[in-house]
C-alpha cells in the first residue's frame, strides 16, 4: 500500500474505535503548535481564507486611533485594531491584507457575505441586532460614547444641543444613542465615516460629534480647540466580525490567538502604544 492509503486506513480504524466506545466522531480545528521561538500557529492548511496564505480584513478608514492611513506600514494602514489583528495573523502564519470599505456595508455583513474579506476589523460594537447577520469573535475592547464640541461653544452637555446640529456616523451605536437621548428639536446629521464627520465639525457645519470616546479623544489631543464634555457608559464591546455561519474554524482560530496575544503581553504593548 502507499503511505496515503495506510494513513486513510488508520483514520478509519480510529473512527470505528470511537463509535464503538459510544463517542460520536467529530471534526475539529487542529490545536495550535508552538515553534522554538514561542509563537503559536495552528495548521493554517486547515483554515479557509479568501486568499491562501493571507488574512484579509475589511475596515472603514480613517477612524483613528483604531484605523489609520499609514504609508510606512506594509499594509498601508495602522491603528489599534489593525495592529491587534496583524498580531493575530502573524500567530496564524498568515500575511495581513487590509481593504478600506464603507462601515454600513461592513456592520450589516454585506461585504463579509460577498467574500470581500475574511473578517471585519473596524471598532465594531457587538450588538444583538448585528448578531442576526454577523458572527463575532470574542470581545477585544471596551468603549464609551462621548460628545465632542468646540471649547468656546458654550455647550456642556447633550441637553445643550436643543436647536443645534449633532454629527454622527451612520449605522453606528453612536447614532442609536443620539437618536434616543438628544433633545427632540436637535438635528442629527449622518456621515459615512469620521473622515467626513471631522471636516464637518471644523468647518462649522455641525455643533458636536457624538461617537466612540477614543476617536473623539484623538481629535481633542490633535486639536486643543476641541474637547469632550460628556462621556456615556453604554457597556459596549468591540469584536471582529465574520460572515454569519460561514467560517467557524477561522473565527475559533482568531479567538485562540487573541487569547494568546493577551497571555504573552503583545496585546498590552499595542494597547499602551495607542491609549497609554
Task: Describe the 3D structure.
The protein is of the alpha/beta class. The chain has two domains: 49-140 and 239-275, D-Maltodextrin-Binding Protein, domain 2 (3-Layer(aba) Sandwich); 143-236, D-Maltodextrin-Binding Protein, domain 2 (3-Layer(aba) Sandwich), CATH 3.40.190. The protein contains ten helices and 14 strands. The chain has helices at residues 3-20, 80-91, 103-107, 110-113, 128-131, 173-181, 194-202, 213-222, 248-263, 266-275; strands at 33-34, 40-41, 54-59, 68-69, 77-78, 95-100, 119-120, 134-136, 141-150, 165-169, 187-191, 208-212, 226-238, 241-243. The strands form five sheets. The protein has a five-stranded mixed sheet, sandwiched between helices. Strand 4 and strand 5 form a beta hairpin. The longest helix is centred in the N-terminal third of the chain and has 18 residues, at 3-20. The chain starts with a helix and ends with a helix. Residues 1-42 have low confidence and may be disordered.
Which outline best applies?
A: globular
- What portion of the residues fall into strands of 2 or more residues? 15-25%
In CATH, the topology of the largest domain is named D-Maltodextrin-Binding Protein, domain 2
Give the name of the CATH superfamily of the largest domain.
Answer: Periplasmic binding protein-like II
Offer a concise description of the structure.
By secondary structure, the chain is α/β, with parallel strands linked by helices. The chain is built from ten helices and 14 strands.
Amino acid at each position: 500500500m502507499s503511505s496515503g492509503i495506510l494513513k486513510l486506513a488508520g483514520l478509519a480504524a480510529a473512527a470505528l474505535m470511537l463509535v464503538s466506545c459510544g463517542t460520536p466522531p467529530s471534526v475539529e480545528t487542529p490545536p495550535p503548535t508552538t515553534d522554538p521561538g514561542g509563537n503559536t500557529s495552528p495548521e493554517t492548511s486547515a483554515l479557509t481564507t479568501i486568499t491562501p496564505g493571507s488574512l484579509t480584513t475589511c475596515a472603514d478608514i480613517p477612524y483613528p486611533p483604531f484605523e489609520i492611513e499609514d504609508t510606512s506600514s506594509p499594509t498601508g494602514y495602522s491603528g489599534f485594531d489593525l495592529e491587534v489583528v496583524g498580531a493575530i495573523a502573524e500567530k496564524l502564519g498568515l500575511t495581513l491584507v487590509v481593504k478600506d470599505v464603507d462601515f454600513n456595508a461592513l456592520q450589516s455583513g454585506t461585504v463579509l457575505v460577498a467574500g470581500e474579506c475574511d473578517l471585519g476589523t473596524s471598532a465594531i460594537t457587538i450588538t444583538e441586532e448585528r448578531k442576526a447577520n454577523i458572527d463575532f469573535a470574542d470581545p477585544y475592547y471596551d468603549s464609551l460614547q462621548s460628545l465632542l464640541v468646540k471649547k468656546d461653544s458654550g455647550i456642556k452637555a447633550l441637553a445643550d444641543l436643543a436647536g443645534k446640529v449633532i454629527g454622527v456616523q451612520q449605522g453606528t451605536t453612536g447614532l442609536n444613542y443620539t437618536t434616543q437621548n438628544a433633545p427632540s428639536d436637535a438635528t442629527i446629521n449622518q456621515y459615512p465615516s469620521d473622515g467626513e464627520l471631522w471636516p464637518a465639525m471644523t468647518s462649522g457645519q455641525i455643533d458636536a460629534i457624538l461617537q466612540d470616546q477614543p476617536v473623539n479623544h484623538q481629535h481633542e489631543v490633535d486639536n486643543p480647540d476641541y474637547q469632550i464634555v460628556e462621556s456615556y457608559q453604554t457597556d459596549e464591546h468591540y469584536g471582529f466580525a465574520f460572515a454569519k455561519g460561514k467560517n467557524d474554524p477561522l473565527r475559533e482560530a482568531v479567538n485562540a490567538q487573541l487569547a494568546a496575544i493577551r497571555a504573552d503581553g503583545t496585546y498590552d504593548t499595542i494597547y499602551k502604544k495607542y491609549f497609554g
